Amino acid sequence: MSRVSQAQALENRRRAVAAASQLFRERGVNGISVADLMKSIGLTTGGFYKQFPSKEALVAEAAQAAFGDLDLLLASFDTAHGDHETARGALVDFYLSAEHRDQPGTGCPTAGFAGDMARESTAGEVRETYAAGVEEFAAWMSTDANDGLPMVATLVGAILLARATAGTDLSEKILESTHTALTAPHGP
Questions:
Q1: pLDDT at 1
Q2: 188 lies in some domain
Q3: Average pLDDT value for residue range 72-96
Q4: Which residue ranges carry the DNA-binding annotation (predicted)?
Q5: Does 23 fall in a domain?
Q6: Hey, what long-range contacts does 129-135 have (CB within 8 A, 24 or more apart)?
Q7: Residue 171 included in any domain
Q8: Where are the alpha helices (DSSP H) in 28-107?
């Protein structure tokens, strides 16, 4: 049996975190086993325990990676749109789209990890990582009028409801009516 090089071990860890970040947002933390996760990237369960002390440690790292991806996405909106107000509007357009609704694995971690964070009474490090990510998202969404939390709460609530009702007319109505409410001149 050959030993894995340090470089390959780091690459395996990176792949496990990336896969977990996506799969946890798609299926929930309890919806994916360590064995299924490792199988998805072509590695054994034994390889998991060489990289992570526990599934909870992976969840924390996967959430942190997902919020890192969100930070990159938000920065790309700023870059693409020139000014922050326009970027914020474009983010609302994207967030409340069928594309975002239908791709939770690559979607916003604020929505993707929300159910798991709500169900875990002792989420510890994971909850701290999640809370920090939500605060950073809210700071990006903030305006002179508010700290961004009402906007984030509205966006996340809308996308969760739209996902929960996907395939029905109500799902589309949730996306459309929330978009109208948030983009109207008197919106939050």
A1: 47
A2: no
A3: 96
A4: 33-52
A5: yes
A6: 129/60, 129/63, 129/64, 129/67, 130/63, 130/67, 132/67, 133/63, 133/64, 133/66, 133/67, 133/70, 133/109, 134/110
A7: yes
A8: 34-40, 45-51, 55-81, 84-95, 98-102
146-155 pLDDT, tens per residue? 899 999 999 9
Number of domains in the chain: 1
In the structure, what pLDDT confidence band is assigned to residue 25 with cuts at 50, 70 and 90?
Answer: very high
Assigned token pair, 86: 């326009």
Q: What is the pLDDT of residue 145?
A: 86
Q: What is the DSSP letter of 108?
A: -
Full residue range of the structural domain in which residue 87 is found? 6-183
List, in order, residues 6 or more apart from 59 with CB less than 8 Å away.
20, 24, 29, 116, 126
* Rounded CA separation 163/165 (Å): 5
Residue 151 belongs to a domain? yes
- The CB density around residue 120, as the number of other CB atoms within 10 Å, is 17
Q: pLDDT digits over 49-68, tens only? A: 888 998 988 999 999 999 99
63: its two tokens: 């959430």
Cα–Cα distance measured from residue 22 to residue 157, given in angstroms and rounded to the nearest whole number: 20
26 near 107, Cβ under 8 Å?
Answer: no
Q: CATH code at 91?
A: 1.10.357.10
pLDDT at 23: 96
